[in-house]
């Protein structure tokens, strides 16, 4: 396995990836954040933060389709390991998602006619979005281990929503979803960082093929 | 599916009864699959777990207001069980596509439209399960807690109705597109609607057209003043669910009188419910709200406990013993000579929209004349929310202020049209906070939270009679002295309070003098009272 092989994999993988769910999620996410902001000036910090979170969940749902591979039955025999194939897919989608997120938050901050838009906690929300994305990928990779037809999204997409629902209701001191004015806001982002690390480790572990 | 094939007779196309049996058999299979699906099981457990944990985590759930909790429960059900019905129903419709058996299903005895009907039946038992859960929650709260009021059955029914609505949406989306990402994204649109439709509608009635229904009042109110068109909203949701179902069946290729009739009935139901809900609240309810806000004494029943009269709105009288515990704890710390005043605790509600832009002065004047008319001058105001530490601290501090100064704390309008409570200066302010700290662990917790996180912009703390109207304000130096006194052994401070009651309550006593009397360090700065 060398860099040249990975480079050769880029173009066919880009063709093989299901981009449509990702595009649908990104478009809807953008609309969910920007349309209410354009329609009213009564949104508070808390409203905008919630909308930005929902936008991040939209694109995480799209990312749950990233590892779908109808050719799974035939890839068992290829010499390129699954981890490398998964990483190529992530390398293709990652920059696009990062660009989308920067664009979404940038537009939200600049087009908002009110003070709340300027105070959007960008760094914290980016950490949350990255965690959601990594969780979606980790769930897809875990689903890959069990699937026979390569349809990982059928498990990963509902699982992303379920995990989000659990995260929404987590009590103190492991709470994740807080308002920006909450005194535990910073502490909760240590929890987010821990969740991100866990999701990344889970993704790497699950992407390894069983010997 | 094997059951369908096994039960199907030889000539299904002409035998309508056999077709019905096959649809029912498929619906049964799909129902069981939906109920057993991991997403449904997890969502149900999460909903039940959330309801149980809120019992322990949220103070006010020990004293629930059932006419508010019914809507709350219905929204929780919409998000979790409705979301499960949407996603699982959609996955079920897309199963043939996912498994690459779409072509095969064309040769089965049931055509697509009949299979769609079976899929539409699948969320029904989940809605029934939701109804059982929501009724069980209300029953447990009504029996096991001193709950106020009673739930609106139609408001409860909107929970299961949203399960049907979102289930039908899942089936329709499955018929419209073969992408599995659309249903979860649709759920996120519903969630985004929950988050921002309220500011978007700006309190307008258009919010009733959303599945979650109109906004809630800023504070719990008696059942007769709710004025929520829950029955019309329920009919509207059922109509919408019927419309989506008809659209799904139409999309699957069904044409015929029955689909048309079902569609028309659903449309009529949705339009009738949709328009009826926009006319609420009626004039009678608005008039009743104004009357109850301005003249609470005429709508309350009073009960005397230990020389204190407690006046509560209909449905709230089960909270009186809990109020009494806090009030008596404060009274017990006061010397017998200072207990002569007859105390009245009166519940009060505020409807912001009924102020008519005249400001709060009129309301405060109305309350004064109401008190005079009822023969209870200096009545202490209390909220329609109870069980949290803040409410206990607010009540205790107001009772303390009444006992210390001989008059009830009352709000007044400061410059800039901001409402402010009566300022408790010097020894009186110190005593108010210290006495409030004697009213049990809840009041003590509320006091600590107020001191730590809930300071007024001026630096002190404000004790309110409800979420909108403040009552007593204690400035920062008085608060500092009282906090230090609360940290000292209780018996020692209590003895000093008993001994120097007259000095401490005298109008001229400053916070520094009070600190000296109580034996705690004096505050850095005095207050200009």
TrEMBL record, chain A:
UniProt key word Transmembrane: yes
Presence of keyword Membrane: yes
Entry keywords, A to Z: Membrane, Transmembrane, Transmembrane helix
Transmembrane segments: 50-67, 87-108, 120-142, 154-170, 190-207
Name of the protein in question: ABC transporter
UniProtKB/TrEMBL annotation, chain B:
Tree of life domain: Bacteria
Protein name (record): ABC transporter
Organism, as annotated: Planotetraspora silvatica
Transmembrane segments: 38-58, 74-96, 117-136, 156-174, 181-201, 230-250, 257-276
The organism's taxonomic lineage, starting at the top: Bacteria, Bacillati, Actinomycetota, Actinomycetes, Streptosporangiales
Keywords, comma-separated and alphabetical: Membrane, Transmembrane, Transmembrane helix
Keyword Transmembrane helix: yes
């Amino acid at each position: 396995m060398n860099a040249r092989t990975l480079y050769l994999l880029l173009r066919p993988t880009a063709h093989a990836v299901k981009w449509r769910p990702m595009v649908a999620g990104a478009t809807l996410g953008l609309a969910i954040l920007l349309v209410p902001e354009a329609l009213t000036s009564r949104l508070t910090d808390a409203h905008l933060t919630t909308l930005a979170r929902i936008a991040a969940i939209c694109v995480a749902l799209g990312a749950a389709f990233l590892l779908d591979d109808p050719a799974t039955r035939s890839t068992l025999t290829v010499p390129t390991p699954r981890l490398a194939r998964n990483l190529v897919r992530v390398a293709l989608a990652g920059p696009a998602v990062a660009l989308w997120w920067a664009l979404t938050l940038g537009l939200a901050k600049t087009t908002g006619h009110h003070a709340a838009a300027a105070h959007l906690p960008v760094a914290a929300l980016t950490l949350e979005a990255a965690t959601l994305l990594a969780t979606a990928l980790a769930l897809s990779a875990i689903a890959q281990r069990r699937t026979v037809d390569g349809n990982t999204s059928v498990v990963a997409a509902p699982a992303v929503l379920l995990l989000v629902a659990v995260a929404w209701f987590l009590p103190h001191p492991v709470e994740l979803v807080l308002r920006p004015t909450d005194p535990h806001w910073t502490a909760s982002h240590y929890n987010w960082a821990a969740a991100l690390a866990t999701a990344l480790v889970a993704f790497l572990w699950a992407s390894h093929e069983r010997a | 599916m094997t059951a369908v094939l096994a039960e199907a007779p030889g000539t299904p196309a002409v035998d309508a009864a056999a077709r019905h049996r096959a649809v029912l058999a498929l619906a049964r299979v799909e129902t069981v699959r939906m109920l057993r699906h991991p997403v449904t099981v997890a969502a149900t457990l999460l909903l039940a777990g959330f309801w149980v944990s809120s019992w322990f985590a949220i103070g006010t759930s020990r004293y629930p207001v059932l006419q508010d909790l019914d809507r709350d429960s219905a929204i929780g059900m919409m998000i979790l069980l409705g979301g499960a019905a949407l996603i699982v129903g959609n996955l079920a419709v897309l199963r043939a596509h996912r498994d690459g058996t779409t072509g095969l299903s064309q040769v089965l005895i049931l055509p697509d439209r009949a299979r769609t009907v079976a899929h539409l039946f699948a969320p029904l038992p989940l809605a029934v399960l939701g109804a059982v859960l929501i009724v069980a929650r209300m029953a447990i709260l009504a029996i096991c807690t001193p709950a106020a009021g009673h739930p609106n059955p139609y408001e409860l029914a909107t929970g299961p109705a949203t399960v049907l609505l979102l289930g039908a949406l899942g089936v329709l989306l499955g018929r419209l597109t073969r992408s599995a990402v659309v249903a979860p994204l649709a759920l996120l649109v519903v969630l985004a609607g929950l988050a921002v439709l309220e500011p978007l509608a700006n309190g307008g009635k258009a919010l009733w057209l959303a599945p979650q229904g109109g906004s809630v009042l800023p504070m719990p109110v008696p059942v007769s003043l709710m004025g929520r068109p829950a029955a019309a909203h329920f009919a509207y949701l059922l109509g919408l669910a019927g419309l989506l179902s008809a659209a799904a069946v139409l999309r699957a290729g069904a044409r015929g009188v029955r689909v048309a009739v079902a569609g028309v009935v659903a449309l009529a139901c949705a339009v009738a419910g949709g328009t009826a809900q926009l006319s609420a609240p009626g004039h009678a309810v608005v008039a009743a709200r104004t009357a109850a806000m301005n003249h609470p004494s005429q709508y309350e029943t009073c009960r005397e406990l230990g020389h204190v009269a407690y006046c509560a709105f209909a449905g709230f009288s089960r909270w009186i013993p809990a109020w009494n515990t806090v009030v008596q704890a404060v009274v017990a710390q006061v010397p017998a000579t200072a207990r002569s005043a007859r105390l009245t605790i009166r519940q009060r509600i505020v409807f912001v929209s009924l102020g008519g832009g005249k400001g709060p002065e009129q309301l405060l004047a109305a309350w004064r004349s109401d008190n005079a008319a009822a023969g209870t001058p200096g009545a202490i105001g209390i909220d329609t929310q109870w069980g949290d530490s803040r409410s206990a601290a607010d009540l205790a501090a107001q009772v303390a202020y009444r006992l210390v100064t001989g008059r009830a704390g009352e709000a007044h309008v400061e410059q800039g049209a901001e409402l402010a409570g009566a300022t408790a200066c010097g020894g009186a302010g110190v005593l108010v906070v210290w006495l409030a700290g004697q009213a049990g662990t809840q009041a003590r917790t509320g006091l600590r939270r107020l001191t730590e996180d809930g300071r007024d912009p001026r630096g002190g703390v404000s004790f309110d009679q409800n979420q909108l109207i403040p009552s007593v304000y204690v400035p920062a130096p008085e608060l500092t002295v009282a906090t230090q006194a609360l940290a000292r052994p209780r018996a020692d401070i209590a003895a000093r309070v008993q001994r120097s009651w007259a000095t401490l309550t005298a109008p001229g006593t400053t916070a520094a003098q009070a600190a000296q009397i109580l034996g705690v360090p004096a505050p850095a700065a005095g207050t200009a009272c």
